[in-house]
Amino acid sequence: MNPLSRRTVRWRSVEGEGLEHLVIGPHDGGVRADSVVIGERGGIPYGVRYRIDCDARWHISGFSVETTAGERLALLSDGRGHWRNEAGDALPQFDNCIDIDLAGTPFTNTIPIRRLGLTPQSETAKLTMLYVPFDRFEPFRDGQNYTCLEAGRLYRYQAEDRSFSADLPVDEDGLVIDYPGLFERLKA
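That's the Transcriptional regulator sequence above. Prediction below.
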């Protein structure tokens, strides 16, 4: 995929109300994504701001998520699947989670897509994600699979338990264009 330049991307929720405004680009030799998301889950509205920092190979070094009500979660990673909180306490329950999945945004699909560099000849990548729901900030482990259907253009996301699957078209930067049934990108 192309080297990333600074850009702004917006998605809207397909069901219910919701909008995301993401600014992504190079930062300190890696990549930084800053975003604001408003939406609802289970009929309860939320407003969230998140920041994700990755190295140049798309390994996460840290992220923070904060609600407009002041709830906050911030975790740091060594990029090899070891996590700690801001106080430096190890979080072994998330060992081997290389990537994260933040509920309410299609952006976190970009991270494993960019990091893995899958091709149609690649095996399906079976990943364990650190998943953070936006209705409560209690992260947990979540199994997810990624398969490249068309290099640099189309990837299949599938829940490990096969309860959900979606074919995700992406642009030249690996950013989701359409997440069937959940999100669609707005014109810039």
